[in-house]
Amino acid sequence: MFPTELAVVKSKLESEGIECRVLDEHTVQIHNFLSQAIGGVRLQVAESNLEKGRLILEENGFIGESKEPEQSKVEKKISDPKFQKTIKFLIISIITITIALGSFAFIYLYINRPTDLELLTQRNWCIDYIVYQNQEYVPYTTSDKVQIRLMGECFEKLNFQANGRVQFPGFNSPRINGNWKKENNFISISQVDTLDFLLERKYEYKINQSELILNSDSLKIYCSTLKYGSY
Questions:
Q1: Which helix (H) or strand (E) element contains residue 114?
Q2: Going by CATH, does the domain composed of 116-225 fall within 1.10.10.10?
């Protein structure tokens, strides 16, 4: 606001009982080129008179009526209660469907999970190590054939066959054959062709998709599933 305009506005406000204070008048008069930078001469009123002063200036045409910025189409759409209700319904529907699908998937996987017998006979189990009388041993199967052992491939395999036969890896010996039988949470090993004093036992077992542990009074056998092929 320029000084000439300000004088008229100040006079009008004071006639209505509103005290005014002029700011930056001398700065603009001395340095006119700063007028745009600092917003021209300013008129200050007490905060308690701000709304009254604004109305007086609007009524007398000194300033235009203040208007709230017009909302865009998107903003109007978002603020529409019907639109908000629709969005809320969609969100609830998506959450409900997601929970339902997750529940169905869990139930399906639970119902179709493999039995212990299927895990024992259909998985390829690799003996990682055994613990006998508190001493740890790693099996090593010998063979009269040349063996090429690839990194990541297990040769020390424990094979439970559906016909009741079982094959253990050797311990600096060829593979060991015998019979096995599952009874509740126990597996009985019998009639092995060697190391019968070590392997012929009744084991309590724990099994899941990737791990098998056979536990007897003085022998524990720790197995994991193979990543590569079978025999």
A1: none
A2: no
